[in-house]
Amino acid sequence: MDAVNSKDTHPHWTDRLELYWDDYAADWERHKREPHVSFDAYRHRCFLSHGADVHKQRRIYLDLRFWIYCRDAHLGVPQRPIHDRIWRRLQTLTDSGRVVCPISYPIVSEILKQGDVDRRMATTRVVDTLSRNVAIRPSDELFHNELCHFLLSSMPGKSTHPLDQLAWTFPTWWLGEATPQLDAFDEATNTLCRKAFFDAIKKLPLSIVMEALSDSTWPAHPDTAEYYSDLNRLCLARRDEISDYHSAFMIELAGLLDDLTPQITRASRAMYAAEYGAEPPADDVAGVDENHPIARLIYHAYDHRKISNEIPFLQINAGIHAAVRHRRQRYKMGDLWDHMHAHPAIAYCHAFFTEKSLGHLVSNKPLELDKEYDCSVLWREQDILDYVMAIDP
Questions:
Q1: What is the pLDDT of residue 9?
Q2: Considering only CA atoms, which of 357, 379, 334, 358 is closest in space to residue 110?
Q3: Alpha carbon of 96 to those of 89, 92, 102, 391: distances in Å?
Q4: What is the model's pTM?
């Protein structure tokens, strides 16, 4: 046997999968006994159960800086003594099941951009500890849920689950969910395989995924100095259009709804199919992608102040950009990426630990999103320590 063939070349992270073999086997046998349960029904049941468990816990969202503070404390080299106290308290609270620190797409994306692989993996192990296998769905899925929840809640006789029970997924699906569909298998075998695959993936900690990606090149950050320069130039050229915060909000909302029209169309079609068991007639959907009636309804509802926090994605994202333009602030490098944390954190968590500039922006007038969503937005480290120490373990 030559040297190449004798060398063990399998990825080292696959060794950790052996910890789950017994679970995988048990799940496979359980699904074989339940062929009558469809994949969609099983998936829906799992997400509702997961969401109900998360719904019972205090949810604290850490932006990347606080994950790094906790990582350094975990490594025994805290940047400040107070970071070690915060880290240890969060450990105690998450171990007790009282608190969870969910992760999200912007958090994981920022971790992946850390150049030092060892520190990246150390950050991920801290994420495994504090997230307790809880992640917030990607923003497109959150918006879909929020829109459907809003529409269903507006219909007489319709009921739905609490919105913040529907916001949760598993860390391995921080970018979105995928399960295999194999044409070579019959429907029953495909259903069995998909349910077993679903169970296998949702059990994995984020650190295994990160190990698998450790040698991958992650796309460059889309923020560039040129992009921000163009954005600031455009805002300056159009600032005379803004007379007050509401006018700025409506401009931002209109642009956001234009961008989201394809998603609005998909959501309305999915709701129609769920209600009637078929796709909507072609004549009913022709042309709506350019001028969707639901988008117009939402726009006018906001314009007449008939709704506020019913669709958090719209209120928070349009609101932040409107507040920046209303204050005639200039965007600085990294702002748009930082702003991505605000929606999942404020709408779905009890506390948001972030940086001072973003904390001030979302907590002060005209936004005051912390009051709107009953979320404690904190950036002073002593305030954060006081907050976590006040939670009973």
A1: 63
A2: 334
A3: 11, 6, 15, 11
A4: 0.90
